[in-house]
Structure formats: C-alpha cells, structure tokens
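Pasting as-is:
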Amino acid sequence: MTTTESEILTEETVPKYLTEHASDIGIFPSTSTITAKAILGGNVNYAFYVSDETGEHSVFVKQAPEFVAIFGPDGLPLTSDRMRREIEVYEEWKIILGEELRAKYLPSIYKFDTTWMVSVMEFLQDYTLLDHDLVSSGIIPLPISTGLGEFMGKTHAATHSSLVSKERASILTKQFENREMRDIQLEYVFTKCYAEATEEQKAGLNVDKEFMKEIEELKKSYDGKGPKDNLCLNHGDLHPGSVMAHVETSSVKVIDPEFTVYGPPGLDVGSLLSGYVLAAVHQAYSKNIEAVTSVCDGAKAVWGAYKAEMEAGGIEPEMMKRIEVNSVGFAAAEVCRTAMEYAGGRKWLQFDDLEIKNKSRRAALKIVQDCMVHRHEGGIELLFSKMQALEETK
C-alpha cells in the first residue's frame, strides 16, 4: 500500500487519526484532548510530537510518504515501504536483545499502520540527539558509548554470515535488501560528493586513483557485492543523528533504522564513529580540548564494547580484523562527505568564522587522507591516534 498526498497527516489531522486508533495504541485516556506539533529538521519523513492536555501522556508519530518529505510531493520520489523495513528490523532486534536490552536500547512501538504507513512509538522525553550533544558540550558519559558498542556487537554477532546458517543469511539478505534506500546511499554517500565537489570543498584532499579505489571497494561492499562471509543485519544509517541520548541518566536509544540492510558490519560502526571524529575536530576548533579528550575516550569505548561483544558472540580474530579495517574505511568516507558538505544540514564544523570553518574542514579531511588508504596497516588505532592529535590544536 502506498501513501498518497491526500493521506498525509498534519498537525490538524493527527489527533483525529490517533483518536480513531486509540484502542490499538492504548496510551491516551478516552477523555483526553490531544494536540500534535510537527517536529522539524528531518528530511525524509513527517514527524509529530503528540500529547494530551495534562502532558502526562505522549507519543511520537512518524509517517513515510511516497517522496522525500522535505522536497514535497513533486520532489524526489521514494517508496513508503521503507517504514515496513524499519518495523521489521525492530522486530529482529527485539528477539536478539531480549526484553531487558530491548527496553534499554529501543523505543517502544505502539502501532504500525501499513495502510497509512504510520508508526506510533514512545516519545523519548528529555532525550536529545547524540549529534547535538557531541557538538554542544562534547562531554558524553562513557556508558552511552559503551551501550552503543554493546547494541551493535550483540545484533551484529547474532546475524553475522560467518555464524548463522546459509539459509538464515539468505533470508536476511532478501528481507533486508532495501534496494530503494540502498540506492540513495550509493549515490549520496559514495558517488555524488566525489563527482561534484569543487577543489575548495576538497580543501587539499588528494582524490587520486589509490584513494578512489578504496571508495569503490567500500561502495561495492555496501552494495552487497563484496565478500559474503562478512555480512550482518545493520541499522544502515547509524550516525549520531540516529541516536537519542539522556546524558543525566547515561541512557541511549537507537532510532530511525529505515536504511537497514544486510551488509558489512563496518557500515554501522564506521557511521557511528564518524560522528565522534567530526565531534573531536569540531571541539578542537572550538578550543574545547577537554571535550576532545572526552570524545576520543567515547570512540574508544564504542569500539572496545563492540569488539568484546563480537568476540563473545563467536567472531574469529581474523574476521574481527577485517571488520576493524572496514569500520575505519566507512568512518573516513562519512567524515569526508560531511566535511565537503554533502550530508545535509548536519551541525558539524559549522562555524560563523569562515577561517575557522575552513581550517576545521581541512583538519577533518586530513584525517580522511591519513586513514583511508593506510587503514589496512594501522587499523582502528590509526584513526584514534589522528583523533587524539587534535588535543594539540592551537
């Protein structure tokens, strides 16, 4: 079922929709007067915060139209079926994690409407996006980072193609092909920025044959055309803008897995670590060296927890090394396109002072240059060393 323009929810129609489905959702008392407020800042979907007059009951409502929401119906077309994939991966994760860890790392989902392509889920009151926290203060409690490493490690190990049966891997490959969303990433993450970036945007980055060979290998791996023995169920777009954090309680929730794919595990790890790299650069050029140290410690905590969970799940050392090298590559690719401003409206490196902005961009691209090719020898420690060097930024 597709979602047509006439079926798009608005602030005015969301309350009526929820009232009609109140028995399915089970959050609002029958006597409630509910109101909806659009949540701005997202690009792909329509989103709303909905609460009753007391403020004691609330939900998050998301709708996936047949187009990219920010461009409207006449803009970029996109299948609304992406929300079905999102719900399916949540269901897989729930089984893998069990009830305790599901409650720890995932929001509660109250309803999924396949006709209107609407999901109604827990509103994460007092949580903020991790990318905002990394940019604002940069001081992130380590349990948030170790939690993300644990979440990735448990879900990756449980679905890794070297550990599950060939039949299970084949089922996951087909179920989470997610071709339409995958093609968007192939274009916007691995192609567009390198084809279109000006010399000014590249800021000294040497995009030579050796560099592009690495990009093409990452692209091939992401597209499912790389080695079949190193695949797992991925979130698919696990940058810090897909993570909700509660700094005071050190709680963390993973959201928006609509780009989910059965692909290389380094995809999720690298995407998440890219945010830490960019945060370290951002804080260094904000003259907040304490935050640089905190961000570096957080990145190490992510990797340490992830590696521990993967090894506990049965991943062999040789495979772990391959995942490590791939993770650095995907991290560098995401840092690269973000620094060249091909990653939408992300807050990284957005300084009012043009000179500082350009210096920070060059610093980010220098890390990309140092790590993309040499990751095969230096691995994750190479990336960490380049991040820590930012503590000496003058």
